[in-house]
Amino acid sequence: xxxxxxxTKVYGHGEQxxxxxDRLDFSVxxxxxxxxxxxxxxxxxxxxxxxxxxxxPTSGSVLVNGENLSRLTEKQLRVARRRIxxxxxxxxxYSRRTAAQNVALPLExxxxxxxxxxxxxxxxxxxxxxxxxAGHYPHQLSxxxxxxxxxxxxxxxxxxxLLSDEATSGLDPDSTRSIVALLxxxxxxxxxxILFITHEMDTVLQVADxxxxxxxxxIVESGRIVELLRDPASGLGRALRPARSHERAAADAxxxxxxxxxxxxxxxxxxxxxxxxxxxxxxxxxxxxxxDGATVGHASIGVVGADHEHLxxxxxxxxxxxxxxxxxxxxxxxxxxxxx
Amino acid sequence: MSIxxxxxxxxxxxxxxxxxxxxxxxxxxxxxxVMVIVVLVGIPLGALVHNLAPGGLFENPALHSTISWIVxxxxxxxxxxxxxxxxxxxxxxxxxxxGIAAAVVPMSIAGIAxxxxxxxxxxxxxxxxxxxxxxxxxxxxxxxxxxxxxxEALPSIIGxxxxxxxxxxxxxxxxxxxxxxxIGYVAVTYGYQRFDNTVMLATIVILVATVASVQLLGDRxxxxxxxxxxxxAPRASRREASLV
Lengths: 340, 244
Hints:
The structure holds 2 protein chains of 2 kinds. By secondary structure, chain A is α/β, with parallel strands linked by helices. Chain A has 2 domains: about 1-230, Rossmann fold (3-Layer(aba) Sandwich); about 240-340, 2-Layer Sandwich (Alpha-Beta Plaits), CATH 3.30.70. In chain A, about 35% of the residues lie in helices and about 30% in strands. Chain A has helices spanning about 45-50, 75-80, 100-110, 115-125, 145-155, 175-190, 200-205, 225-230, 235-240, 270-275, 310-315, 325-340, and strands at about 1-10, 20-30, 35, 60-65, 65-70, 85, 160-165, 195-200, 210-215, 220-225, 255-260, 280-290, 295-305, 320-325. In chain A, strands 6-7-8-3-9-10 form a 6-stranded mixed sheet, sandwiched between helices. In chain A, helix 3 (about 100-110) packs across helix 4 (about 115-125) and helix 3 runs parallel beside helix 5. The radius of gyration of chain A is 23 Å and the shape is elongated. Chain A starts with a strand and ends with a helix. The mean pLDDT of chain A is about 90. Chain B is mainly alpha-helical. Helices cover about 75% and strands about 0% of the residues of chain B. Chain B has 10 helices and no strands. The longest helix of chain B is centred in the first third of the chain and has 37 residues, at about 15-50.
């Protein structure tokens, strides 16, 4: 488990003083994947460097399994860093070392014997599905494979916390999916706390249990993914919904945006809604899926001649939130700009 | 040296090998000794300068500019002037101011200054992420310098070392003018001062061949130390790589 307590990082003094991280407070439990999102300049990379102790926080602390790591001497810090595995962006491999030699780096730094290193390296490469690529150099591997080597290396010293700093940025969707699947598998098998820093909202939806939004060095919103998706007022929930285009409503109909706010939305809510209102309701586009075993969904519908108040009330009784589509679109465009 | 006693103005062609080959050996010996010193001092010094710079491992602007300044002075003096100006120092170190031993001192100073910049420049080409990777993997500063910096920059350093070695062959010829011996000395005393065009031509051919060999060897070493410049992986594994 890793916790941040009032973590603050300030660069410069006096006039040039910039607060990059402002009293961050959150914790990632064992077995949890916690995503931090934000646009560039929000403080994501500084956060990553404070978490893996490459930068010292100005104030506040980083605790791993309850132990405060932010007040250590340089030498103690080197030892402490071993408890946190870091996965860097895909350029983090040494070009003149093979996959196996890259994975062996932390063991080599620690002074582990050659035989032990060989055994552990083979085990790690096998764990990430690259047993046959041990002798390959980074340039002979695909982006996704390189990132797997990076993950194996991050796990070499059996850390309890894994920090992923933009690990899937720059990967194609297929590679991203396979890396995400691997991270979830590792989380389950090894009980890791994973802090996943990214600017890609669709990856957050795939990988994380919880997410926090960083803006100008502060966490402005956070929560469990499912809860955010079910909260119609949540900016993060809105940003997590993939923006897909849908069919236009007929000329005499008004477009509405509907989202699930509870776990008990009936599957036939569309017909029920039409029955209750006594009007025609047409489905223009919808996405209903399960996240962490819970159903979430949203839809665009066209409604002919229903009273606004009635529509909103009828939707609420079915566990849905309804709002005019235009307002929703504007709100989503706005939040997407501020998130990534 | 016995060559000075040869009476005729021009060296007979059949005696040229006996004149130039020992001189070539002297040159190689001189450059060889110098390059060993240059590498032993230049690599640590270059790594130090790089890591004292802003963003380096032991950031220290004052010390960085001091060392950088000294290196720049060594770099900015034309070799002939450097050589002449440090004669007292050379005599203090070696007890003489002629011959190979005396040439090694100014050549090493010029070479170290040259190579320090080459190492510094090569290290600058290593992606900074790799230093962060090493730190995050628990490396000590020395381990970082060895594995994340020098090792990754090795092909570039070898390329620079080749350039440096060739420059030292050139400097050895200049050192030859003040009696250091070697191929430059032969070229100057026979070719230039005695207008012996045959000897001049022979020294030119030998110098060109020597420089070409050094370059060839250097290029080959660069290729050998660069994984992606070598022959590609076997076909099968490449196809696998594109599938996964």
